[in-house]
Amino acid sequence: MTRNPCCDEFARLSRRSFLGGSVALVGATTIVGSAAITTSAAALTSAPSVLVVLSLRGAADGLSLVVPHGDPVYYDARPRIAVPSDRLLAKDGMFGLHPQLAPLLPLWTAGRLAAVQATGLPAPNRSHFSAMEEVEDADPGSTKRSGWLNRLIGTDASTSPLQGFNAAGGVVPTSLYGAQPVMSAGSIDSVEIPGDDKWDVTKGRRSSLHTLWDRESGPLGTAMRSMFGALDDFAPVKESVDNQDSYPDSDLGRALSEVARVIRGDVGVEVITVDQGDWDMHSDMGSVENGWMSDNAQDLAGSVAAFFGDLGTQAAKVTLVTISEFGRRVVENASNGLDHGYGNVMLVAGAGVKGGRYYGTWTPLTDDVDSDLLVTTDYRSVLAEIVSARFGASTAAVFPHFAPESVGVMTSL
After folding, report:
1. How is domain 8-398 classified at the CATH fold level?
2. What sign does the dihedral 96-102-105-108 (CA atoms) show?
3. Per-residue pLDDT reduced to its tens digit, 81-133
4. What is the distance between the alpha carbons of residues 76 and 79, in angstroms, rounded to a whole number?
5. What is the Cα gyration radius of the chain?
6. How far is CA 69 from CA 90, 191, 294, 362, in A?
């Protein structure tokens, strides 16, 4: 079921984010950056670690996904939309998972899924667009147009555009934007040069493009040669099995099935971004069993569970983290929804995760109409721990001017 987000700002941003993009000669594939690429299919290096960043666009309500049942204000503040304590999964003395997250329980009990509560930006920002950009840039006050994931792949000596992949097509998110070349595609099958297909028996299309660009010394020529190499190197991904039928029939399910193919292709991809939109629930959130929140939670859990089940031999090196631009208010509004808030929850799953437990410092809720879940863990501390543990990268290079605090959610390599 398709729902319209309540905020005009988010509606405009969502339409832009999910439109399939294209660049001349590259179909729905976008190469960003101008570094010279000299890799070939035979020279590809398998990535030792892969990070998948799943953005819950529209500001997901972390207090519904990971419910603070041990805080009595939660039920006082949400008489109509609170998730009943007796329905929660994986409960401890304070928290429990929304019942629609049941497909993730095997990951939780196996110690491969954890939740970090009360995370977020260092200061409230209730604008969808501005907060998304701030979260993904992760370098407040900087004038450089560089996202934290682009800086992460920049810590590697390689400059292959296959290191960073956006599984949405069109414009890459701020997190991937920067000096390092990356790739964006709405689907694996769209990664091609239009006309370079079985009907072009003489391969005249590709030959013509090489004639046009191989001797061009400028940035565009360099980028085009990078594109040719990336398309050739991408071949093992296109040959990987498509298991989409094992996923929910949703945008997220389809996207994560494509992400799994990319990872199983083992072509050196290190970071991947993917979106689940439509979390802007100002009204009509529904009940614990059906409705907007229930449907989104079910889609999230089913898609992520299918994804980890689809990774095969690559599963041991893949870590997934969810992030949202901000949370929702503690107190429900008159429309059975929640307005823009502050603190939120992050889910971390897969390789290196010390799972089966909840992390973060909890500040008791208040039930004033303007009350927020306070942020006690800067979201960058969670990401920095993943970056350090899984990639051995300098957190100072990825998150400049930031001193991360220990979260404890990750093990070292």
Report:
1. Alkaline Phosphatase, subunit A (3.40.720)
2. negative
3. 999 999 999 999 999 999 999 999 999 999 999 999 999 999 999 999 999 99
4. 6
5. 21
6. 12, 46, 17, 12
